[in-house]
Amino acid sequence: MKIIKTVEEMRQYSRQCRQRGLRLACVPTMGYLHEGHASLISAARHSHDEVVTSIFVNPTQFGPHEDFERYPRDFDRDHRVVDQAGGTVIFAPSVDEMYPLGASTSIAVRGVSEPFEGAFRPGHFTGVATIVARLLLAIEPDAAFFGAKDFQQTLVIRRMVHDLGIASDVIVLSTIREADGLAKSSRNVYLTADQRHRATALYRALRAAEDAIHDGAYQKQIIDNAMHDVLRSVDGIEIDYASAADASTLATPDIFEAGARIVCLIAVRLGSTRLIDNMEFTIGMKA
């Protein structure tokens, strides 16, 4: 396993791979890796010769009262996950390496970044777009792999890559879940045993939305109500949002047309932990 800590060394390694005719992929992460990350690394390795897993807890995507300082970190654990999943390189730069002294450039993606997470976490997606662009420019991968759990983030990254003409394919793979449906997340470690049990309400709410759609619902309010009913039935859950939206634009019309591809997005607070999840559906069809 090769460990790289500077942008210059990363670029040199990437260019050496291309000179040798090798295909290179990357999996951007903030570390504390789990089975979801491992699945991305494994999938990337299946179609590429080299897979770079970046491990960087990005300070610019955390708000002033969020969990940057306590975000879980365990490099030795991450190293084992990457190795077992077939990754070949870990790119673990410092904050000073990614944001050199005097750095004053940021990337704001309008439109898909503004509702939902953008409304509840101002500046979050500017931090995400800026660091992902910086990582892609350093790694220069043929493809970058992301998980669908951060659905809105994937839309922001696709738009940013397209608009800036970055020559990397963006590959989004399905959310990896626990046996009871809870989406894998590094932040799940914050949950107490009781909170962990209550957190399954997110998955059940999404399945309630699916049932409503399967029963013929096409009105946004009916789909939203199905999710809210489940979430409100669980003590301790505070809802930031639980809403259906167009899966391409995140527009929220009152009525979805037959055949429309939509996404149901949820964000809740459970104690001191904030959890998000989503599922995509087609109006008029069961997922």
What features would you describe in this structure?
The protein has 287 residues and is of the alpha/beta class. The chain folds into 2 domains: 2-173, 3-Layer(aba) Sandwich (Rossmann fold); 190-282, 2-Layer Sandwich (Pantoate--beta-alanine Ligase, Chain: A,domain 2), CATH 3.30.1300. Helix content is 38%, strand content 20%. It has 10 helices and 9 strands. A 6-stranded parallel sheet has the order 1-4-3-2-5-6, with helices on both faces. Strands 7-8-9 form a 3-stranded antiparallel sheet, with helices on one face. Strand 2 (24-29), helix 2 (35-47) and strand 3 (50-55) form a beta-alpha-beta unit. Helix 2 (35-47) crosses helix 3 (75-85). The longest helix is centred in the middle third of the chain and has 16 residues, at 124-139. The mean pLDDT is 97.
